[in-house]
Amino acid sequence: MFFLKLLCTMNLFTLWITTTFCVIVTAQLQENPYTRAIRMNKLWQNVHGYVQVRPGAHMFYWFFYANGTKVDANRKPVIIWIQGGPGFAASGIGNFAELGPFNMDMQPRNHTWVKGRNVLFLDHPVGTGFSYVTNSSLYVKTDREMAMDLARAIKVFFRRYKEFRKTPTYLFSQSYGGKLCPRLAYYLHTAIENKSLKLNFKGIGIGGGWVDPKESILVLPKFLYLSGMIDRNIYLSSSRVAKKLARCIEKEEYIQADIFDDILFSTLNKHEELNFNNVYAPSPYKALEELENKMNLYIKQTLPAVNVTRKWSYLCLNAYNNLQLSFLVPSVSFLEALLNKTKLKIAIYNGNLDVVTPLGGASNWVHKLKWHGAAEFATAERHRIRGNRNGYYKEMNQLSFWWVFGAGHWVPEENPEAMEHILDYVMAEDVVKSLK
């Protein structure tokens, strides 16, 4: 009898739990997007605002505290996320599509960088996302101008939030942001040495980096051919164009190189639209268009500093077009300077399904870097990335290179397990200290 009563009690309790859970889930599903956006903003503590990097040029920042709370946040590492494009908006793409606390449906993300880490998103170059310029002449036209704007924004941010000046800080970047990252890192390092910036700057991460466009372009036709995405005729014709383009880059003839770049990609797209983010995945742009609508209709309303009449776009074409002649300029020299003149930890990672920056091209330029550890790095053994068939990495001194399986251009979203290993590897020392 006692057993039956206990069983009935347990069943009633189970029924209550199940019913309560269903009510909560149903309520969340029925929640309108605006209410969900407000709830999201309250669930995870964050701050946002603007930095005037030049007269009339205003850069938007959005900072998410580690674990969703300000409590002891300055004891956790800070990651500054540098989006690609140029002109893709970090406030939406990096934040909701890749690594922030919530996904594009404004639901909690299973794998987020802000568990145990603070993340700063910057909409750059100015004009991108929620950033804006008061005059079209204020768009940047070179990587130098873009990096200078970012360096100014970072300086002001750490003046405003002084509690993070001693916190270990890292730059992590993607695509064109990966090309910009070594230059920006060099500027920050120089400012710290000159004592014009107080920052505990520890390292950088470059994912799918457009660091050496020539190497990426040379392997692209063969990568697509071996993947079955183009036929032999297109492979042969695109290979010829790629070689001409590479020669123009070597000679620094960037106007002519830009012409060949257009020819190359129109040749590769002759028969079907390729997804340059991931060779086998569907295009992400429909999802980004949906994100654009949500950013304008709901997210923007929860950010008091943002002018509600200002339209958010996932890509700022004005910013992109103004940087056209900088697009094929490499940044290898800045990366070599970091390796030879600093102790910054440098992690370079690439997805094996990436089309924009094929893994083979990344491996080529990494192994051609001129630095004091180059010979040892070339012969270093590879190790498995943590998890089941996630790829490999090799390391020597401060440099590591990661072959990430099952991911295209957006490694944080497409293989978050491997990405966690990369983050843990780069920040291992600081994570241990934060736990003490």
Give a verbal description of the structure.
- This protein has 436 residues and is α/β, with parallel strands linked by helices.
- The chain folds into 2 domains: 2-30; 43-211 and 325-435, Rossmann fold.
- The protein contains 15 helices and 11 strands.
- Strand 6 (168-174), helix 5 and strand 7 (200-207) form a beta-alpha-beta unit.
- The longest helix is centred in the first third of the chain and has 29 residues, at 2-30.
- The N and C termini lie far apart (53 Å).
Number of beta-strand segments: 11
How many domain modules?
2
Q: Describe the oligomeric state of these chains in a short phrase.
A: single chain
- The global form is globular
Range of strand content: 5-15%
Low-confidence residue ranges: 1-29, 432-436
CATH homologous superfamily annotation of the largest domain? Alpha/Beta hydrolase fold, catalytic domain
In whole angstroms, the N-to-C terminal distance is 53 Å
So what's the CATH class of the largest domain?
A: Alpha Beta
The CATH architecture name of the largest domain reads 3-Layer(aba) Sandwich
> What is the tally of helical segments?
15
Largest sheet: 11 strands, mixed
**Strand/helix succession:** HHEEEHEEHEHEHHHHHHEHHEEEHH
Name the average pLDDT.
89
Give the C-alpha Rg. 23 Å
Fill in the CATH topology of the largest domain. Answer: Rossmann fold
Give me the secondary-structure category: alpha/beta
Helix content: 40-55%
